[in-house]
Each structure stands twice: as C-alpha cells, then as structure tokens.
Write a structure and sequence with these properties.
Length: 134
C-alpha cells in the first residue's frame, strides 16, 4: 500500500505493489502523516481485489500496528475514499466498509470518479476545520 503524500492532506494509496514490496515503508509513511498532527484523507483508485491476500504474519503485524496507533487513526484520518466506477462493485463494497471502519477506526467512503472522491474529501476537510474553529 505505497502512499503518496505530496498533496497532503489528500494522501493517495495504491494496492498495486510488487512481490518484494516493503510494508514497513508503508507503515513509516503512514506514521509520518500521523505525526503531522493534522487531519487527512486517504484516497485510492486501486482498491484491493479478492486476490489481494496477506500472510498471517502480515495480518498480525498490521493488527499490532493499528492497535498502537488507534487513537491517532480515529482522530486524524477522516476517511478512506475508494474510487470505483462500477456501481455494482461499489454496492458490493458496502458490507466490507462496516468491518473496515470497526477495524481501522475511520469510515470507508465510495466514489465513482476522482472528481467525486476529491469533492467528498474536500467536504470532510471543510467539516473538520469548521468543527475545529467552532
């Protein structure tokens, strides 16, 4: 899940990774974004497929990392926005979104295009900044 934080607070994530991909770098990049102390949104247009499987060791490492950073994740990550042009696939993602939110502590939102995803992300950022100043 390589991250591109060049347009922070809009952080792009990809699930297209090679077989020798270093997940430690991904966690370090996510931690760097959390250390900014500023809310942000994760976006992806390469949602995981059913073939995207993790080993038991990777699942355990992810779970331990997530538990260590749960408070920051809940506070600073406003949502993960998945771009999926197919209405049928977006509908199929909805049940997964419930489990996703329980595990990660932030919601999974679905968009049909990059434009819609950026509109959702902008609205989330605007709502958060409005709450911070109110």
């Amino acid at each position: 899940m390589p991250l591109d934080s060049t347009n922070f607070p809009f952080v792009w994530m990809t699930y297209d990774e090679g077989p020798d991909h270093d997940h430690d770098e991904d966690f370090e990049a996510l931690e760097a974004n959390l250390k900014r102390g500023t809310p942000f949104v994760l976006l992806t247009d390469s949602a995981p497929t059913e073939e995207h499987q993790h080993s038991q060791e990777e699942k355990k490492r992810t779970s331990l990392w997530m538990k260590k950073h749960k408070a920051e994740l809940r506070t600073l990550v406003l949502a993960m926005i998945v771009i999926e042009p197919s209405a049928a696939k977006r509908l199929a993602f909805k049940p997964f979104g419930i489990a996703f939110a329980k595990f990660w502590g932030y919601p999974l939102k679905l968009a049909s295009s990059r434009e819609e995803a950026m509109a959702i992300a902008g609205k989330l950022m605007s709502e958060r900044s409005g709450r911070a100043t109110a």
